[in-house]
Amino acid sequence: MIATTLSERRVRSRGGLVGLAVIAATGLCLPFASAGQPFLLMLASHALIAAILALSLDMLTGNTGLLSFGHAAWYGFGAYVAGLLSKSVSSDIAVLILLTLAATLLVSGAVGAILVRQVGKTFAILTLALSQIMFALVFVFSDITGGEDGLQGIPMATFFGAQIVSPATWYAILLGALLLALAGALHIRHAPLGRAWLAIRENSERARFIGMNVTLLKLISYMISASLASLAGLLFVLFNGATSPDLLHWLESGKVLMYVVLGGVGTIFGPVIGAVVFTLAEHYVSSFTDAWLIYFGALFVLIVIVAPGGLFGGAARIATRLSARKPGRRAAQ
């Protein structure tokens, strides 16, 4: 039994490394494929930000089973905090990352200490309420946040005094951030902390009975998830030079949830794939018709019915069936 478990872990570890390598290779090849098409690189950059955001929600929902209806709260929080700090403290991206993540950990720790004590629908509804409260605060403090007009005039980001101007440079930064986030998520998933989260996801009461501090473990998951979403918001505002209250709206939270469900909850790579597919489909389908949501909604329903595990889960199931049909496998059996 132990040998089988160790074997499975090795296979999963190798699978994670292969997936990471595939995403890295695809990401590195894209700038060459988009030569002469700068808009394609810009679209890919937005897809990378969406992928980081989707991964952040999967770190919460996929690991501990906590469903958030208001995850955009931390996306917008990171964008506004980074934008305000950039205008008042420093435009250096390293400084902004440190300060924004510190603020997110502080606030998410205080809020999460209350939220994670709730379960099921209560937790989900409270996260939605939090998102709408933050959305309303943008208008209450419109003198600082810009209100409906959003936060404008964000200084160009710098790194050790050098301005980050080139779209190719920004793309490299965003791809690097996504790869680091994926590597961290894979490491945590196979670490004792990740296995404890999965135990809570499967049965929180049983996890509590065997001595796990379920509340603390959920809080850690919530804070990490919020911090990663905040990082996505920071990258968004620095990349675009502005932000708006839409990032905090419940519609944005619904879009993030669609990323995760479309790609596959708890699969790590699935939400990344879902975010990229959604971002590309949103752009290209909407360019043909204003009613793109109808067609995309129908496609989403079809995918959920045909592949309940999402795009990644469906692809993995097909790959397993194909590998089982190999002549070598049958002969060995």
UniProtKB/TrEMBL annotation:
It is found in: Cell membrane. One of its GO terms (molecular function) is branched-chain amino acid transmembrane transporter activity. It is a multi-pass membrane protein. Keywords: Cell membrane, Membrane, Plasmid, Transmembrane, Transmembrane helix. The chain crosses the membrane at residues 15-33, 39-57, 64-81, 93-116, 123-141, 168-188, 209-236, 256-280, 292-316. It holds the Pfam family BPD_transp_2. It comes from the Bacteria. One of its GO terms (cellular component) is plasma membrane. This is Amino acid/amide ABC transporter membrane protein 2, HAAT family. The lineage of its organism: Bacteria, Pseudomonadati, Pseudomonadota, Alphaproteobacteria, Rhodobacterales.
